[in-house]
Amino acid sequence: MDLDLQQLRKNLCKSLCAEVEVVPRSDHRISISTPFTFSDGDHLLLLAEPLPTGGIRITDCGHTLMHLSYSMNVDDINKPGNRNDLFRQILASQGVSNDDGELFIDVPADEAGKAVFKMGQALGQIHDLRFLSRIRVASTFYDDLERVLLDVAPSAKLHKDYVMEDQPDASVYPIDYRLDFPNQDRPLFLFGIPSNEKAKLATLIIQHWLAERIRFTSFLVFQDQAKISRLDVARLTNVGDESISSLSAIADMKRKLERLYGQAAASTEQLK
Q: What's the whole-number mean pLDDT along residues 52-66?
């Protein structure tokens, strides 16, 4: 049976229009109520305001990032890294501008409807940055890990993706981070563990360098140890020296580094 396109168009327009309300405000802006919601069920905040040069601005007045701040540190979105890359990609794909946290689209008045839909799509995607895929979460985990290392061990010289070039087949056994502390001859080999696969790989790498009689201390930082299989955790912690169960255990990380490296691992504030 063929669809009646005209009737379908009328039905869709009727349904969609019924879901949208516009209400004038005392500040001369217009509140736009839509069926769009964040993943937690809260409705998006969208306002329309006239532009001095003509046209109209559809804006969230900073509400989206404020709402997102309830469940994550939104400062991470503005720092170089995967979250920032995804954030900028979302804005660019929908033509959304960002002015110090206020997200908006400027369009001619007759394109307001299209702008509202683009804003709805963009704001929903931005809010869902906290629900990244496993691969992307793993990559943002390393961004977060590096920021933590710079904070808890400012006196150490940090080497990211370190390869021991003076050793045979070194490229096959890379180290996530090598940290050299002042006046210490035993470097710290630190591994981020976001998955079962990385737990297995880190186990092999540590075992290799131990077999090669390289002097080092190993430190394991799990993204969430509870989500790694018990067998993988057991094998890894058997060969590793120290570990923390997640990045939220920063205080434990500082304590363990100070025990291993003494005052050389103390933070800048602690050394004052």
A: 91
